[in-house]
Amino acid sequence: MTELHEKSAGGMVYRKIWTHIQVLMLAWKNAKNELEYVLPKGHIEWDETAMQTALREISEETGLAEKDLEIVKFMNKIAYSFIAGYLEGAPIIHKEVSLFLVKYKGKSEPRPRREERFVWYKWFTPDELKNVFLKPDVVGFLEKNIHLMKKKSEKLRIFDFLRFFYILSPS
């Protein structure tokens, strides 16, 4: 049986709306035509780093502008194998995926690529994710990185200070 080795990169994309964190998951039809929620990821090109691939693939698969995506940190490298029954000869594929924590700073909603079997998307709260079957262990990654997601940006801190100062200043 033929064996193939692939390297991919992608990420857990999140946004903050006030103090609420939401994680983006893409709804995808797998080879059995079953609906699954997955993280955006894709093949690393020969001239790319894993980080560059993660930003490109997230942008391509979600329709979100790459300029609105910010890598916060490298999260994990996962490896898994599967039989690709949809390919000629049904080879075994050994896949290694580099995953990043990625903050979305834009305002537009995702537009998933239907030609890659993505049918929709959903922004999940951390609690909602606990009740959804996900591959890989997104909840585990979320729990390890929630402290970074809750941090305020420096701009927001300055804005909060100025607003606080304005409220307290005499009229």
Helicity range of the residues?
25-40%
End-to-end Cα distance, whole Å, is 79 Å
The overall pLDDT average reads: 85
Outline the low-pLDDT stretches.
158-171
Question: Which value, in Å, is the CA radius of gyration?
Answer: 19 Å
Find the structural class using helix and strand composition: alpha+beta
SSE run: EEEEHEEEHHH
Could you tell me the number of beta strands?
A: 7
Largest sheet: 7 strands, mixed
The proportion of strand residues reads 35-45%
Count every helix, treating DSSP H or I runs of 4 or more residues as helices. 4
Shape: globular
What does this molecule look like?
Helices cover 26% and strands 39% of the residues. The chain is an alpha+beta fold. Strands 1, 2, 3, 4, 5, 6 and 7 form a seven-stranded mixed beta sheet that branches. The radius of gyration is 19 Å and the shape is globular. The termini are far apart. The relative contact order is 0.23.
